[in-house]
Q: What sequence folds into this?
């Protein structure tokens, strides 16, 4: 939950911190999945999504891994979570402007300044430092109902349910905090979630991350670690994402899917003959959602909406 303001690296190769983040996320996901109650799947009308040629019924060595932002959900989970935290006065308007500037600097500069990125992460992590994990989980439930429930892509949800119906496990894999990712997974009836792990002691956030944000190569490391722990055969698994940043994760599995892909992923997928699914149409496809918070996280993502609301009220 503490990963609310970091600027995530854009490098491709896995580092020691990527491996640490991936392994920590896999361990947290396995623990959380044991606590997830089974939910009845609502029948959802599906007219646009094609039925995939697989999953294979009863293949217990296969599983599915779904990116969250703009793959399962329209927009970024971190953006919506940031809106919810601002609404609950976790931070002040002056903080919004600082985070907005940090995000804008990163996007415009297009370079990775380690000192600047660390400052952005530390400032956002301080917002949840001292708060209890249980408190943020409870708030996450409320925020899901307020901002997220109506933004789930029916087509992607149908794909996830196909894996579940075949007896396979389905995991979210996201840079969002593992706690909010777990809430979303439970609400959708999925197995569990891999997400960014924030350090906590006795149920209280310390303001530090375990490793680094679960982004890019770290996602691949998390999937690799979870597959090893669960005894899965990655060549029989599937992965779904909208972003070229997730090519390392998609490349791990035997059945990669590009869902609502960005231009780089679409080009890559066509080159390698990966399957594509696009549940957007017309202008919506070009303008869908909020960027997937690959720079500053929930708080910075929430700044855009919060600042706009603040200005409207003036």
A:
């Amino acid at each position: 939950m503490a990963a609310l303001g970091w600027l995530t690296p854009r490098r491709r190769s896995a580092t020691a911190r990527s491996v640490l983040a991936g392994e920590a996320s896999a361990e947290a996901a396995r623990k959380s999945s044991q606590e997830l109650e089974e939910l009845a799947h609502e029948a959802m009308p599906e007219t646009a999504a094609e039925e995939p040629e697989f999953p294979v019924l009863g293949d217990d060595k296969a599983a599915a891994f779904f990116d969250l932002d703009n793959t399962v959900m329209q927009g970024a989970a971190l953006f919506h979570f940031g809106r919810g935290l601002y609404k609950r006065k976790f931070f002040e308007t002056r903080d919004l402007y600082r985070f907005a500037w940090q995000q804008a600097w990163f996007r415009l500069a297009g370079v990775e300044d380690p000192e600047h990125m660390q400052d952005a992460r530390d400032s956002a992590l301080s917002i949840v430092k001292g708060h209890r994990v249980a408190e943020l989980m409870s708030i996450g439930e409320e925020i899901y109902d307020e901002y997220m429930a109506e933004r789930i892509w029916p087509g992607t949800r149908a794909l996830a349910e196909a894996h579940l119906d075949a007896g396979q496990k389905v995991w979210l894999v996201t840079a969002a905090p593992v706690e909010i990712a777990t809430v979303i997974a439970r609400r959708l009836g999925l197995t569990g979630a891999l997400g960014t792990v924030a350090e906590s002691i006795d149920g209280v956030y310390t303001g530090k991350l375990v490793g680094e944000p679960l982004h890019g190569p770290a996602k691949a490391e998390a999937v690799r670690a979870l597959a090893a722990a669960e005894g899965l055969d990655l060549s029989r698994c599937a992965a779904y994402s909208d972003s070229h940043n997730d090519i390392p994760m998609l490349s791990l599995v035997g059945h990669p899917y590009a869902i609502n892909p960005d231009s780089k992923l679409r080009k890559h997928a066509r080159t390698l003959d990966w399957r594509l699914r696009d549940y957007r149409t017309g202008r919506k496809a070009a303008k869908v959602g909020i960027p997937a918070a690959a720079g500053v996280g929930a708080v910075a993502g929430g700044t855009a909406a919060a600042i706009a609301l603040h200005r409207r009220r003036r």
Notes: The two ends are 31 Å apart (CA to CA). Residues 197 and 210 are 6 Å apart (CA to CA).
